[in-house]
Each structure stands twice: as C-alpha cells, then as structure tokens.
Amino acid sequence: MKHITCTDDIDRLVDNFEHYLREVKGLVPKTCARCTSRAHKFLTEAWKRAAHDLMLGDLRSQEILRYVTRQRARCKPWSLQELGSTLRTLLRFLVMTGEVADSLIHAVPKISRGPRVGSPYYLTEAQLQTLLASVDPRSPEGARDQALILVLAQAGLRAGEAAHLLLDDLDWSGGTLRVTQTKGRRERRLPFSAALTKALAHYLRRARPVTAHRRVFVGFPDHRPLSSQRVSEVIGAVLRRARLVFPRPGAHLLRHTFATHLAQRGAGPKAIADLLGHRQLQTAGFYIQVNLPLLQTVAQPWPEGGV
C-alpha cells in the first residue's frame, strides 16, 4: 500500500504491520498493541501533514527526525526510546514490502535514556524466608501461594509466564519446567530447585482443585486460571501480610530477587540473561551492581592514618 488517501488505508497498513509483528517477529499481543498504536499515530500525522494524500515513497529522513524531535517534549526518555525502536521496526517492514527506501531506517535517531542508577529492589535470603513463612501450605490457597512464590523467586519467571504455565510444561523426570509464553516466543527450560519441586508437588497433589483447565495456577474459590495481573496481586498481598514494604510489591520483585541472588553467587551476565530469557547482556549486567561477594574481592583496603 504505497498511497494513503484515507484513514481506512492507515488501518489496513497497521493491520498488516501487526501481523508482521506477531507472526514474523514473534511479539506477544501486549507488545504488538503498543507498537501498532505508535505506528498508527506516526502514519496519521504524516498523512495529515501531506494534506490527506501521502505517498509512502515520498517520506524523507528529515520528516522522521522532526517527528521524533516533536515527541521529545511530551515523552520521557524511556518512552522516546521505545518510540524510536517502533519506528525502526515499522520502516524495516515498509522496506521489506517495497514501500520505502532502506536508507530511511537510519533516519531514526539513537535515543539514550541515560545510565541506570541505583540497584534493583530485591528480597534478601532472610526476607524471602519470611515471605514463605507467611503462607500456610496446609490451606489450598497457601499451598498455591508457596508454589507461586518459588516459581517466581527460584526460576525467575515473569508474571505472565507463571500465569500461562501449563501442567504439560512440568517435566518431573527431567527436573525442568518449560517456559513458552515469553517475550519474543523464545522457549526456555529451567531447572527445578528441591524446594520448588516439593512445593509444586504438594500444591498439585493436595491443593489444586480438579478442573478442566491445564494452567498450573488457579484462583480460589472460582478455580479459574490466574491472569498475569492476578499473579502480581497475589504476591503483593503476601508481601503486605509479611510486612515487607517495597516500592513495586509485585511478581517482578521476585524475578529481580532471582537474578540478584544469582549475581551474588557469582553467576555472570550471560548465565543470568539465559535464565531470564533476555536477549541483551546489558539488562542482566544491571544485577552485577549488587554482586556483593565479587565487589568485596576487588574493593581496595581503606588507607591507614588518613590525610
């Protein structure tokens, strides 16, 4: 679709872009929705500036640069960075379909959100034990919550990954669980810890209700599969009950806990990235900041005497 003369043309182009994101790039629906929304706004503004008669082949790098610059006043750095990423993906799609020249991809400026400061919030080993002690595995809900906490804190799953975990994903003989509902559809297998094995077995044998649903984690009393939002709500409620106060008291706190504990035990960025399902090592490198044993080995002794 090289010629856009009405909003229906924009809608059709964005629908094709969404199909590309989902089927070719393998992005999850939530990410696809954010990307298509940004793409729709960009195309609509370009169409309006072209007096409602836009030839995609007439797009110029200056127009793309000016569009990104105009968004700077209303976007935070991380949002502007995501916009740039979306525009590059959209332009690659348009190059692939023969709508624009490939040189346009380089018109989108690189956007830095600045260095990440501070350290990720996480539970210490003692706090994690306090959290686990606050649930009662003798009750069905407590047994589920114990297993859910350990899946997040000892396997590093995202809330959505835990919510979509299926009974068929648990390989008891191999001692692993399979994660398929991931960002970018990159399947990975993670080992069970002894504590996680015991908690999952107890929950599935003693507490999980008989239901046609194949999801591992279900709600009480409705016995419906937990959503990713509900997973975070459950963890938030347990944290409050344990009187553990954090700025973001949800499932991601336990994922950060998993990664941070790995770093503190000496795991490198590549191992952490693989277990978390990250493509970029820089993301996993964030946790090296809190590798206290490693930092202690490189810290210089304080000079005696002073100046």
Task: Briefly summarize what is shown.
This protein is mainly alpha-helical. Helices cover 52% and strands 5% of the residues.
Attribute tags:
two-stranded antiparallel sheet; 3-stranded antiparallel beta sheet; 2 domains; hpI Integrase, Chain A
Architecture blueprint of SSEs:
Elements (H helix, E strand, L loop, with lengths): L2 E2 L2 H17 L5 H21 L4 E2 L5 H11 L5 H20 L28 H9 L6 H16 L3 H5 L6 E2 L4 E4 L8 E4 L2 H14 L20 H14 L9 H14 L4 H8 L4 H5 L6 H7 L9
Antiparallel strand pairs: 1-2, 3-4, 4-5
Helix pairs in contact: 1-2, 2-4, 6-8, 6-10
Commentary on this structure:
Strand 4 (176-179) and strand 5 (188-191) form a beta hairpin. This protein has a three-stranded antiparallel sheet, with no helix packed on it. It has a two-stranded antiparallel sheet with strand order 1-2. It contains 13 helices and five strands. The longest helix has 21 residues, at 29-49. The chain has 307 residues and is mainly alpha-helical. The chain folds into two domains: 3-107, Tyrosine recombinase, N-terminal domain (DNA polymerase, domain 1, Orthogonal Bundle); 125-293, Orthogonal Bundle (hpI Integrase, Chain A). It is elongated.
